[in-house]
Amino acid sequence: MEAQSFPLRITHAVGASRTSEQVADAQDLVYGPILEWARNSPFHSGILGHSLHPMLTDVTLGCWTGASLLDVAGGPAARRSSLLLVAAGLVAAVPTALAGAGDWAGMTGADRRIGAVHALGTDLAVFLFLGSLIARARGRHRLGKRLAVAGNVVVGAAGFLGGHLALNRGTARR
Asked: Quick count: other Cβ atoms within 10 Å of Cβ 112?
């Protein structure tokens, strides 16, 4: 029997965690009406035969990563473009989240728990990027950059869990 890699041990621990189950239950309570709508919406995987969510994440993450790259390489001349990319990423996050919610609403067991932690991480990233947008709009560019870096780190970790669900556990095909 081959030993599991560290990342797989993490996803297994998240999938088996009582805390993850509590997060999932809380999300069911808070987002209940949205989940039911999303499950029956065009954003749900039944329309294309596979999940729309992974494709939509490319737009959101591309905007946010692009903003951070401009922050590093573009200097003060790129501030307006970075602000625009952060804002575009936030707009793109809405259909991305709805597609993910529609898929998640049908999950059970470990998939549901891993998906709940993934969603919690992406929610946190959205708030960090919203803070980045507000800071940038108020001329606090340094704070905006820091919040964007934090948002990218959080969404990267959440994306790891989402990627595990879609690629290793096959949830994007359901």
From this structure: 22
pLDDT of residue 149: 97
What are the start-end ranges of the H helices in the chain?
Answer: 6-16, 18-39, 53-73, 79-104, 109-137, 141-163
Q: Which residue has the tokens 């952060």?
A: 86
- Containing domain of residue 124, as a range? 6-173
Judge whether 1 lies within some domain.
no
**CA–CA separation, 123 and 132 (whole Å):** 14
Asked whether residue 100 is domain-assigned, the answer is yes
Domains held by the chain: number: 1
The per-residue pLDDT for 96 is 96
In a domain, 144, yes or no: yes
- Residue 120 pLDDT > 90, yes or no? yes
How does pLDDT run across 144-169, given as a tens digit for each residue?
A: 999 999 999 999 999 999 999 988 88
